[in-house]
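A student in our group prepared the protein record below, which I am reviewing. What it holds is a sequence and that sequence's fold in token form. My question to you is simply how this chain folds and whether the tokens agree. Do not assume that whoever made the record got everything right. I have pasted the whole thing underneath without changing anything:
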Amino acid sequence: MEGATTNISYNVLDRNVHERKLGDKVAFYWEGNEPGDEKTVTYRELLQQVCKFANVLKSQGVKKGDRVSIYMPMVVELVVAMLACARIGAVHSIVFAGFSAESLCERIMDSQCCILITADGFYRGDKLINLKLIADEALQKCRDKSFTVEKCIMLKHLTKEDEALSGSVSPPAKRACPDLQQEKQKERVRKVRPPPQVPWNPEIDMCWHSLIGEESEECDPVWCDSEDPLFILYTSGSTGKPKGVLHTVSGYMLYTAATFKMVFDYHPDDVYWCTADIGWITGHSYITYGPLANGATSVLFEGLPTYPDVSRMWEIVDKYHVSKFYTAPTAIRLLMKYGSEPVQKYKRTSLKILGTVGEPINPEAWQWYYSVVGEKRCPVVDTFWQTETGGHVMTPLPAATPMKPGSATFPFFGVVPAILNESGEELEGPSEGYLVFKQPWPGVMRTVYGNHERFETTYFKKFPGYYVTGDGCRRDKDGYYWITGRIDDMLNVSGHLLSTAEVESALVEHEAVAEAAVVGRPHPVKGESLYCFVTLNDGINYNQKLEAELKKQVREKIGAIATPDYIQNAPGLPKTRSGKIMRRVLRKIACNERDLGDVSTLADSSVIEHLFENRCCTAV
């Protein structure tokens, strides 16, 4: 679509309000961490807030092409911030609010962001996350590396909850059955928690509410070329340095709108709920851009699936009459542990379609999801896609594709997959190998920000002429595709890709560690867990204190999601004669599998038995 001009904020807001007459339709039901924290935002109100904040950004000197870093919890203002950037042609770079100060600093510096938007803090269950404190630490790290972010806009989320949308929010919709709502209110009293201590630097810090209060509710969109950048989103790289995946305006807009409409069989009276965080690509595509492009009503959820009890998700489904529900296999496996009773306490009669995202779903979890949650009447759309693909590339279409539990089934329209062997030859019929795609589709990423050579090397060099997903795949006799998992040095932990190199780098930065190797070990809930082997410097003893320090080191460098589940002291690692660590062997040791295959290239086979004898049997 080169040569065309558009604006995605105009398409998902102005078009819905003015042309489609959807101004009074609910865009988001926001459900907070605590039951009872709720807001309802219409398309008209969302457009007004986006225009006001777009004017704020312009008043702070942000212009088309500038990069803006956003580090916020799951609040409506996060959607406002990203759409305000899109409205003026600025490029948003959202960093998941679970990442550490070091990870935030790295992403700010790589994309050369001119401004940071954050919040005072938020609660994840009972745990307070002081987001502003982490953001300030990240900005200081930037300054220490000679990069200065001149301005930081902070939303008062916890310190003044009643100002969350500057007073323009409609009264919350009480959609649950009256008797059910009264019953829930009797069961628990909403907890009022202390706000965080917010550090404040008057030289760079500005308050969201003070800035937005006097701004106009009108802001003309900046018209963008079809291939202008829309956003950068960082995903883990196998070299340890995160990759800034860059998506452009028109192709991404078209692809998210089309896949949302067809994969979820969207109808105007649907209430849709994607439980992902907007800090990941699922939230970009299937909370913000795809649903809004279709004029959909969505649930925006800040909390946890098990807080304050394991029925929370099904309570919300009944409360808002959710018809299309999209979540991760990790969440399904977690809730499976508590059995069917917490699910069956609620009616769930509104549900029509169930979806999964983030990793291949195991057949047992699929069956529980289909049978217990959906009562065998809701099709399950098991979607395969990546940050890089922008939207679904392999997926069933509900009620049109015969389902096979655990299979991503067939490609979406315009997507042409192939399975290659190690030599790059296409395999026909039932086969297993590398999953690749043979032609581009509108939503495919355009480059790695600031490093197009890395883009070409990562996705196209191994098999020239194909897009290489990095995943293995099996095709059965019926032509169905089954994703078998990563085939490079990446781990899929709770649906989030982590680079083993990145975790190893964080471990080795500790002064006690000489070398580290990280592999995945199957986990019943998270899919994969982090199993770490560390070789210590001479004279250092391994103990619980050091173990705690290493876990803390990884958390601070990457974030809590990368915290090791297992750390094993490894005086020696299995290496080839050329010095390469044999991670294939380490994966076998982590899983206590004695069939190691060919180990003839091992330089010292004696380390194997020692590692088996000292395996970690339980998580540290």
Observations:
- Residues 161-189 have pLDDT under 50 and may be disordered.
- The CA atoms of residues 240 and 501 lie 5 Å apart.
